[in-house]
Amino acid sequence: MIARYTRQEMGRLWEPENRFRKWLDVEIAACEAWTDLGRIPKKSLEVIKEKAGFDVARIDEIEAVVKHDVIAFLTSVAEKVGPDSRYVHKGLTSSDIVDTAQSLLMKEAAGIII
Predict the structure, then answer these.
(1) Which domains does the chain have, with CATH numbers?
(2) Are residues 24 and 59 in contact, defined by beta-carbon separation less than 8 angstroms?
(3) CA distance 87 to 28
(4) What is the value of pTM for the model shown?
(5) How far apart are CA 46 and CA 88, in angstroms?
(6) Which residues of 44-59 are buried (b: 16+ CB within 10 A; e: fewer)?
(7) Quick one: angle between helices 16-36 and 69-81, nearest 10?
(8) Buried b or exposed e, range 12-35, using 16+ CB within 10 angstroms
(9) CA-CA distance, 54 to 20, in Å (whole number)?
(10) pLDDT per position as a tens digit, 48-88
């Protein structure tokens, strides 16, 4: 987005930090669903929810090597979560995360516009 034409509130919505936050929200929601189905131990979900985070600069660093934004994001999250990160992204594709998060962001953007 061109900064001089962007409302501050809308610009913040589309910043990488917020986009990755939505990705993490989707990943955690999926982990919660898997836990409800008995596929992820409750203790592991607690660890994931407690420790899950990311670092945008680290994601950029990893992406420069792996050339894949979601793998870079997941690697950054795994560095924070530790062994229980094996449950993050379980049964999901990159598109599941990116498209779902994009829909959430578009809903928020519509709220700003309308």
Answers:
(1) 7-113 (1.10.275.10)
(2) no
(3) 10
(4) 0.93
(5) 12
(6) bbebbeeebebeeeeb
(7) 70
(8) ebeeeeebbebbbebbbebbeebb
(9) 8
(10) 999 999 999 999 999 999 999 999 999 999 999 999 999 99
